[in-house]
Amino acid sequence: MNNAETLITGIAYKVRKLIETNERLTFENNQLREEIKSTKSKVDLFENNINTLQNQIATLKLAKSLNKEESRTNVKLRINELVREIDHCIAILNQK
């Protein structure tokens, strides 16, 4: 009977250890799940920031290209003005 008591005591000890280990691992698992949620929310925030910055870059590129077009328009207007002046000069020379 002493042998059976020893076995039962050993089994009870091992069961307690398993329960403690299970509780510890469950706690760690919950912590890791929370950390995953936190990390996912950070990733989402960073992705939103990236999208916002990409949109800003596209807007700036568009604005820059519009400025270039404005310069082109100014150049075209200046060329047209010079051509009119040349035509005017040619017309004056043809009158003499």
Quick take:
98% of the residues lie in helices and 0% in strands. The chain is mainly α and 96 residues long.
How would you characterize the overall build of this protein?
98% of the residues lie in helices and 0% in strands. The chain has one helix spanning 2-95. It has 1 helix and no strands.
Specify the structural class: mainly alpha
Instruction: Note the beta-strand portion.
Output: under 5%
Globular, elongated, flat, extended or rod-shaped: what is the shape? Answer: rod-shaped
What is the string of SSEs from the N terminus onward?
H
Helix content: over 70%
What is the β-strand count? 0
Task: Show the helix and strand layout.
Layout: H1 2-95
Describe this protein with a few key phrases.
96 residues, mainly alpha, 1 helix, 98% helix
